[in-house]
């Protein structure tokens, strides 16, 4: 009986742009890429590229303009605080060719938050400056908002704040078919299973098969990750893979996700 | 007395290209960027950009060709193992427009390492394929080498191996003036010190002043990082900064690096 071809997957893509000299100097380890990649994946949005760039206006403008044309969604983190090196909002405005000024709702929220007008300093007011035409992204932690400009979402760099901003806006995203995965773990090293794995990949060209070596309790352990949008196909491929490894004399088990 | 202008700093730049679907899916947290950024910085090589890209040949070729023209050095990690999804070596060959075949010295090393010819499988032999004209980068851990092609260095993705490859080749790098840093920690929040900080940045335009908020023992703590190539200038700026913060009623101390 001929197999019924599956409908082509609806693919929605994203790019993450991490803005900050502190990541490039090695001073700070980025924590936003893995969080956003994991969460976007759950929503059916595939991260196809990430960039880490410095706090340099020309670089931010060029990068944002390149990637917003190339991908469905862009997420930037970093550079929207109150200090002189926080130039992301101005750079996004420049990238879109629009002006930037204080957003009344952002001013109102921050003014309420700080209470005493003396605490709502000019530097803090800078954080209420939003590119014209952008909509706010709520910041449940420290109030100063992020924003959405076209398909570009701009978040703070501090991971807890970036995460809370993402949670507050994720309903705006329209994802494609979610990418599902199954993982088979084996004790056979990559160099032994590679050929069989390559053959399996050829037969299942709608699935992306990745091989990730590691160690468990001092012994080689390879995680074989099958990713795709059709779970029946993933299940069939995983079963075949386990059988093949058993035939080669290896151990194989599918991990419960 | 007029200040003697310092000689312009010799700047050497780099880009890190992380190749791997597992980072983009969020499955694996990258650990190579912060290691390489920190180590390169010590050698006077400034990381100006990082990219995380998928295991797709066209993307690897385009990215490598763009960044090798733009930066003094390029470091790639990932995709040089024995499985079908390891396509970095072939992609680098394509980017440079050269062929690729087994490198006799790589074959000899791996053949010695595996001993039994039955263990030196065709898949493992793939790891001895090196773009024509490249020189080997030693792999003290698992033998299969990385390589240098022009200004592009290609390392394995597994952090311990990437790190050992970097250690074995770093004497080949010619750095510029090392970037030195001094850090002042204060209890004043960014929104309070931002204006004074911006004014200091204007007076010290040869120094890059970054402001990184955080928490220590539940209280606001901001690290102000001064970076530049001239330590006398950094010391002067740090002293001025500490005085300014004291005048504002805040606490400030320079951290011992």
Describe this structure in words.
The structure is a homodimer of 257-residue chains. The first copy, chain A, is of the alpha/beta class. Chain A folds into two domains: 12-172, 3-Layer(aba) Sandwich (Molybdenum Cofactor Biosythetic Enzyme, Chain A), CATH 3.40.980.10; 180-254, Alpha-Beta Plaits (2-Layer Sandwich), CATH 3.30.70.260. In chain A, 37% of the residues lie in helices and 26% in strands. Chain A contains nine helices and twelve strands. Chain A has helices spanning 21-24, 32-42, 57-70, 88-96, 104-114, 122-126, 159-169, 190-203, 231-247; strands at residues 12-19, 45-53, 73-77, 100-102, 129-131, 135-137, 146-149, 152-155, 180-186, 208-216, 219-228, 252-254. In chain A, the strands form three sheets. The first copy, chain A, has a six-stranded mixed β-sheet with strand order 2-1-3-8-7-6, with helices on both faces. A four-stranded antiparallel β-sheet of chain A has the order 10-11-9-12, covered by helices on one side. In chain A, a hairpin with an 8-residue loop joins strand 6 (135-137) and strand 7. In chain A, helix 3 (57-70) crosses helix 4 (88-96) and helix 8 packs antiparallel against helix 9 (231-247). The longest helix of chain A has 17 residues, at 231-247. Chain A is elongated and about 75 Å long. The two termini of chain A are 32 Å apart. The model of chain A has no long low-confidence stretch (mean pLDDT 94). Chains A and B meet through helix 1, helix 2, strand 2, helix 6 and helix 8 of A and helix 1, helix 2, strand 2, helix 6 and helix 8 of B. Strand 2 (45-53) of chain A pairs antiparallel with strand 2 of chain B.
